[in-house]
Amino acid sequence: MNKTMLASALLCGSALAMTGCQTVEGQMQTGNPVNQPALKSTIKAVSGDKNEVGQMFLRPVDGGVQVYGKLMNLQPGQTVALHIHETGSCADMGKAAGGHFNPDNKPHSNPDDMNGHAGDLPNLTANEDGVATINYVNKKITADEAGKYSVNRLAFIVHAGADDYTSQPSGASGDRVACGIIEMN
Ligand SMILES: [Cu+2]
Ligand SMILES: [Zn+2]
């Protein structure tokens, strides 16, 4: 099994509705198949039994890094914020992850704004099965092992609410509910 197939298998686990599975598989087929995910992250709840609630993958593509994956166990229709935070720790209910990854001292903003945090990402909205997917090219980060803009060894944080893309310093997106360390695939 090559890495693309492995990623598909992870993304298309039994908990995932077929529609969501097909969506993620389709997304994976649109990019350059030479570029395997360089980085990955297993997203876990920050409280309770710290159950796994999602998977994220990052791979270099033309002009940026494709961030793709899914979150599970959301409320149907729930919209949540996802960001890359500056410290690779999920301790203390995710607070140890610090603020948004921001190597150039920019304000929090819409993820498409090149004058915003490098770690800003679009909100995700769950389907009727509580599964939300993301497929987004972030132009402000790299998937390299190290470097000023590399997100290796940083952390994804999922928040309880949506990012308004405006409020400082983090979009008023609510409590940290899940977290995952980003690591080499
Ligand atoms: Cu965040
Ligand atoms: Zn931000």
TrEMBL record:
It holds the Pfam family Sod_Cu. InterPro entries: SOD-like_Cu/Zn_dom_sf (IPR036423), SOD_Cu/Zn_/chaperone (IPR024134), SOD_Cu_Zn_dom (IPR001424). GO terms for biological process: superoxide metabolic process. SUPFAM superfamilies: Cu,Zn superoxide dismutase-like. Residues 1-17 form the signal peptide. Keywords: Signal. Residues 63-182 form the Superoxide dismutase copper/zinc binding domain. Residues 103-115 have a biased composition (Basic and acidic residues). One of its GO terms (molecular function) is copper ion binding. The keyword Isomerase does not apply. Transmembrane segments: none annotated. Residues 101-121 are annotated as: Disordered. The keyword Signal applies. Belongs to the Cu-Zn superoxide dismutase family. This is Superoxide dismutase.
